[in-house]
Amino acid sequence: MHIPDGYLSPATAAIAYGAAAPFWYQASRRVKETLRGHEAPLVALFAAFSFTVQMLNIPVPGGTTAHAVGGTLMAVVLGPWAAVIGVSTALIIQALFFGDGGVTAIGANCFNMAIALPLAGYAVYRLIAGRDPSPGRRTLAASVGAYVGINVAALLTGIELGVQPILWSEGGRALYNPYGLEVTIPAMMVVHLTLAGFAEAAITGLAVAYLQRTHPLLFKQGAEAASRGLGRSGWGLVGALAVLVVLTPLGLLAPGGADFEWGADELRELVGYVPAGIAELGELWQWAPLRDYQLPGMPGDAAIWQQAPGYMLSAVIGVGLIFALFFMARIVLSRRAS
Amino acid sequence: MGMPVRAMEVGARRAGKAQTIPAGRAGDAAGLPDPRSRASGGRADFAAKTLAGIAEALERAIFSDDSARLPGLLQGIDPRSKVLGAALLLAVGGIARHVEVLVALHAATLLLAALSLLPLGSFVRRVWAGIPLFAAMVALPSLVMLPGTPLLSLPLGLRVSDNGVASFSLLVVRVATSVALVLLLVSTTRWSDLLAALRTLGVPESFVVVLGMTYRYLFLLLRAADSLFLSRASRTVGHTSGREQRRWAAAVAGVLMSRSVKMGGDVLLAMRARGFAGEIRTRGFRRMSDGDWLVLVLGVVMSAGLLLLDQRPGWL
Predict the structure, then answer these.
(1) Domain harbouring A171, CATH code
(2) Shared domain check, A53 and A18
(3) What is the span of the domain harbouring residue A327?
(4) Close Cβ partners of B151 (under 8 Å, ≥ 6 residues apart)
(5) Tens digit of each residue's pLDDT (9 = 90 or more) over A210-261
(6) Radius of gyration of chain A (CA)
(7) Would you put residue B117 in left (φ > 0), alpha (ψ -120 to 50) or beta?
(8) Is residue A89 less than 8 Å (CB to CB) from chain B?
(9) How many domains does chain B have?
């Protein structure tokens, strides 16, 4: 699932860094709060664990082996934000030092495997486990969480790779990954819904069961960290954004367009002519990468289900850009204040 | 590699489940396969695969540490210049739209590798044998999938198109060039210097310290995993079921996690005992010499030149 350099356009890579930045900021803040300024050795050891667990080959049915990420395992035992920092650090070392995953793609790989995976996995785990779960229920919840987490990460990877030929092609040749969404999403999902998802669920469930038997104290410490969990603001952030992104295509059901957001054609219909300024400046938007919130090449009469992914993708990119700007403003303002 | 059969039986039982020793092997303990090699079925066993992966990671780290001490061109350059130069060239490698520009950039990395006294054959093998080769295999169908002017007819009515060839070569050469740039940087820069350079270039200090500590303890955990797998492989006879292997891999993950949590606490106590009060200080760098600035300027000029060539492909 590690995306190497060269598969993503620099613009996608930059957006992914922007999307990951607020989660990194929140994670480092939460981990610092929990560990009261003495976080370095513990976070380093978590990251080293994450790196090592990714090297394990897990036997899967069919006689082959798959790699586990271990993000949900870390989130369940050590808390979701510690997992974000731990897996991110491991991925950065893999990219910088071992050439596994690209350097420009660090943002995308971290967003998929170090942010979306442990947060989604942990959310599912908490939903199933509830408060104070029995050992069996905790094991089951961790397994299902791990399965969901790795598949969310795989889906995001498929989308990021699949939009490349749609957004960045020149004269029929793809500049980056050549396969569209119709290839990348099934390619990623078939493997992860079956073999890799099975491996991740098995290693997580079995490791949680093992740790509950052999190191129950670790789970008490973990429960302390887990009770802080995502935090109210963290849950709010993830939940509200997910709901809004999923709901974005709802506007397609409404008849007509939004008032005062008319284009040149609608204005001609409404008032009979197009003001010169609008006609001139309107040309600028033909260069927008996601014009009308649609993927390039989408026919004008596409059905709602065909248009919906474009809307959702636009929402994800928009939210990422807003976070990136907010984060930059925060850095600039905090430097001035100090 | 010889091991008493009795000891292997005991070991196999300890591994969780008593294993029957295959008839052909019971009297030939000395002829058992090396646990680091492929299993007898021809397919690599999960333990052998993991051991090979860990050995490769350790070998790569040792290779990089050794090559960063050679008296070559890039080894003598300030790490800040190298990091900035590599970042610029990586950006050019990402932006370039013509394969000729990427080939020129790749040729430049090979020249720099030779001037830095890196063994060229090994460098090329390390670049191409991994990710670019995989990228080429994955991108192979795009040769016939992308519509365009047919260049070559294949059986089953498949046709290789010009757009397919252009997309395939662009992806593979772009991936290889990026891998070469990163490998060149880490092969000529010690990890500690790379981290210090990142800190002076604006990466938060606490994050750089975590990266440094992770790298240090990574090898401890990798060695622990290596020992666990090697000991298991050494005392296992015959074939184990997939279920048994998964249970065992999960137990390794559990052991490593509990060790890492305990070790984290121990390291913190040791740091406190040496006066650590939550504040981290790292050493600074010397001033950049004229030579360091020159390399940085050359990197900027080279990046600009390549971008210009990319805009004017007719010049190539």
Answers:
(1) 1.10.1760.20
(2) yes
(3) 249-337
(4) B159, B160, B161, B162, B165
(5) 888 887 776 765 444 544 555 555 555 566 556 656 665 555 555 555 454 5
(6) 22
(7) left
(8) yes
(9) 1
pLDDT tens, position by position, B9-48 = 334 344 444 343 333 333 333 344 444 444 444 445 677 7
**Closest chain B residue to A171 measured between Cα atoms?**
B163
Contact between residue A57 and residue B46 where contact means Cβ atoms under 8 Å apart: yes
Which spans in A54-180 are helix H? 71-78, 80-97, 106-109, 117-129, 135-162, 164-167
Instruction: Give the three-class secondary structure for A170.
Output: strand
Residue A264: strand, helix, or coil:
helix
Residue B179 lies in a domain: yes
Q: In this complex, do A99 and B130 lie within 8 Å of one another by their Cβ atoms?
A: yes
Rounded Cα gap, residues A241 and A239, in angstroms = 6
Contacts of A81 (CB under 8 A, 6+ apart): A26, A27, A30, A31, A34, A230, A234
The DSSP annotation for B103-167 comes to HHHHHHHHHHHHHTT--HHHHHHHHHTTHHHHHHHHHTTHHHHS-S-EEEE-GGG-EEEHHHHHH
Identify the closest residue of chain B to A215 by CA–CA distance: B258
Confidence (pTM): 0.71
> ipTM score of the complex?
0.73
Domain of residue B126: give its range: 70-189+293-315
Q: Are residues A267 and A208 in the same domain?
A: no
State the nearest Cα–Cα gap between B158 and chain A, in angstroms: 17
Q: Is residue A65 classed as helix, strand or coil in its secondary structure?
A: strand
- Say how many CB pairs under 8 Å bridge A and B: 244
**Rounded distance between C-alpha atoms, residue A206 and residue A316, angstroms:** 34
Q: Nearest residue of A to residue B88 by CA position?
A: A104
